[in-house]
Amino acid sequence: MKEKKEATKKKAPAKKAVAKKTPAKKTVTKKTVIKKDKGEQLADNVVFGMQEKKAEDIVTINLKNIKNSIADYFIICHCESRTQAQAIADSVEEQVYKKSGESAWHKEGRENSEWILLDYSNVVVHIFLRDKREFYGLERLWGDAEIKHINVI
Questions:
Q1: Are strands 115-119 and 123-129 parallel, antiparallel or unpaired?
Q2: Alpha-carbon distance 141 to 114, whole Å?
Q3: What is the dihedral of CA 26, 32, 33, 36, to 10 degrees?
Q4: Which of 49, 53, 75, 149 has its CA at a distance of 20 to 30 angstroms from the CA of residue 86?
Q5: H-only helix segments in the chain
């Protein structure tokens, strides 16, 4: 009888083997962050200030690799009027002060506004009227340096 009882007992269904899910591996992409030095950051702020007032043909001249250069960067632009030259100079000073807390060490040319110079020690800003820029040709004088033309925004 025992055999009948055992035979009549239904066997529990066998459990199916469930494959364990392994969590997907996350891919971590590391971005290379290039830190800009103080001069580069200042140069970027100057360019931004120039762009705010529609300066034309903005050029940065990297003088770091030029022996006996007087600054790390020259930033040059031109405009069509003396009023615009004043506005560009004001915008540059405002943006640089707002973003880095620096004021120009020396300023020249605001009286006649044909060539305004703002000297931040390692960055020198030149704002010309178009004809004065062509006449003085600073880019030609520093032809050995790395010259970068900035696109208008």
A1: antiparallel
A2: 19
A3: 180
A4: 149
A5: 2-8, 38-52, 82-100, 130-136, 138-141
Q: What number of other Cβ atoms are within 10 A of residue 21's Cβ? A: 6
Q: Please name which of 70, 66, 46 lies closest in space to residue 58, comparing C-alpha atoms.
A: 46
How confident is the model over 82-128, as pLDDT tens digits?
A: 999 999 999 999 999 999 888 889 999 889 999 999 999 899 999 99
Other Cβ atoms closer than 10 A to 51: 18
* pTM across the whole model: 0.73
Q: Report how far residue 72's alpha carbon sits from residue 43's, in angstroms, rounded to the nearest whole number.
A: 9
pLDDT tens for 52-89 read: 999 999 999 888 887 888 888 999 999 999 999 999 99
Which residues are paired to 108 by β-bridges? 117
Nearest Cα neighbor of 99 from 38, 33, 57 is 38
* Other C-beta atoms lying within 10 Å of the C-beta of residue 145: 18
| CATH of region 39-149, choose from 3.30.420.40, 3.30.1330.10, 3.30.460.10, 3.40.50.12280 | 3.30.460.10
